[in-house]
What does this fold into?
Amino acid sequence: MPLLTCSDLKIGYGSRVIADRISFTLEQGDYLCIVGENGCGKSTLLRTIAHLQPALGGSMSMNKETDGQVGYLSQQQTGRNHFPATCREIVLSGFLNKRGWLPFYTKSQKKEALRNMEKLDALPLSKKSFSRLSGGQQQRVLLARALCASGKMLLLDEPVTGLDAGTTAEMYRLIDKLNKEEKLTILMVSHDMKAALSAATHVL
Amino acid sequence: MQSLDMLSLYLTFPFVQYALLTGVVIALASSLLGVTLVTRRMSFISDSLSHMAFLSATVAGVLKLAGASMLLTLPVTAICTLLMLHSDRRNGHSDARLAMISVSSLAIGYLVINLFSGSGNVAGDVCTTLFGSTSILTLKSQDVTLCCVLSAIVVLFFILCENHIFAMTFDETFCRATGVKAGLYNVLLAVVIATMISLSMELVGALLTSALIIFPALTAMRVFRSFRGVIICSVICSVLCAVLGILISILASTPVGSTIVAAQVTGYLLFSLIGRLRR
It folds into this structure.
């Protein structure tokens, strides 16, 4: 049973269609890489899948179990430089979608947050202030948060933009590890053909 | 010793007790709101909103809704808050727009008061609305009860929704992508903010309202690095400054609002120093 099916999907903003006739299916454990030039609608597709904007036509259906079990990591953002938060608080906030309107987090969720940070070699950062980390460290923490939010699928929107070569390789290694060891379905947008082809099972 | 005696004498008067209680309760609730507004980079919203509330309060005054002016002020402020929370996300001009709203509502409010006001003391009315110069000392017991109840609701909302507030403030896009009901939450937050602002507008004046919201959060952010730390510290700071300000203003017979703000400025400078030394 596919996790995600898109058939004849049409995406864009308002009345402006950026791309249409997009059809693909994703199975559990797939690693789909979407590559293409700037402005061809890669990120828009991802945002549509993440329900951040409505699809303009066609259909997109998600497995019932997967819906609400999706983690999202966007391009590196600036402007959070003065936000007071420790990394642990940020990673924990990934569980919010599983709590609904219930207050507080459970003990097992707190443990799982630390486990997720360990998987990404981010455990030593847990008590540090997010705004004082380097770009690569910040992306790792945000990936850990996405991991908390998802059990099944990760949507990654150019996660390595702005990182240097070494950190980029490290990031790809971690994502690859998650895909292989945790059987997580990965849907990544990238304009880096080489890296995409080396790891992904499918390329769009 | 003499001033202590004077203080204990004053503290036996009910109006002083009311002022203290109200001040503490409002300081507590608005410092909580301040943390999310400041970290969302929307500090200026509280200022614009209190001016907006000033406008609707004057309109209510003209329409002879005396005593029921909250009925008009509250919904108007709530709608404005919602609009501002939205426009902030959509485009980059929100800074200029807020300044525009702030100035124009202040001007129109003053115009309305001037054109239609029945009482002769226009300057006095405006001064009271802006600075709450004496109103915190002339509270009635029902004001105090209302204020306590509403503040309790705000505090409860914060304790129960702390995680939502944190996550939404830090990264709203992520919340939406992972299926959190962001729209509903924004409406709720807008209503709470509007309630708090129009309430404290009535009681302590527009100037003090913005100060009570902005200062504690900024002060706490100088020293603390975790979200929870900032929340707890800003609540303590805010309450402490409010109590100190009210007591000093009684002893030295200075205006209450300005004294509280002065206490907060002192606190901010102190914490900046501590933050710099610890670095």
Observations:
- The first helix of chain A runs from residue 42 to 49.
- The helical segments of chain A are 42-49, 87-92, 96-99, 107-119, 135-149, 165-181, 193-199.
